[in-house]
Here is the input.
Amino acid sequence: MAEEERRDRLVIRKVIQASCEEVFAAWIDPKSIGEWMCPGEIVTAEAQLDPRGGGTYRIVMKGTRAIDHTGEYLVVEPPSKLAFTWISKTTGNQPTLVTVELFERGSACELVLTHERFANADEVKRHQGGWGQIVDKLARYLARRSPIRGD
Here is the structure.
């Protein structure tokens, strides 16, 4: 996984051994999110999603504490692109922008996650590790669903 960092954004890249359709489906399935959107001490996530342009979502990551995330879907283009606002206590309750782009790489899918519009470099740093863990868990989740391909 290669990661790029700027003052107001982060970029995470990972090739996942699954089709882009499978990766996209995982991002819009509340049950799926509960298994892989769990960075750090988070053990599960509850998601309520309305994945359409203008639709909203709420994801509550639960561990030793609960962290509430809300936002609006701005772009929903299966199986290649999702863009949504991301608002939580960790962004100072200010809207930031997450874009997930998916590119076919043979039988695999390259995921490029860009999270931008952070207020400062500290917010970028705090989110960099979390998104990295989330993307790794997504890859492992999809590998468990299709063990022939592996991770």
Notes: The chain has three helices and eight strands.
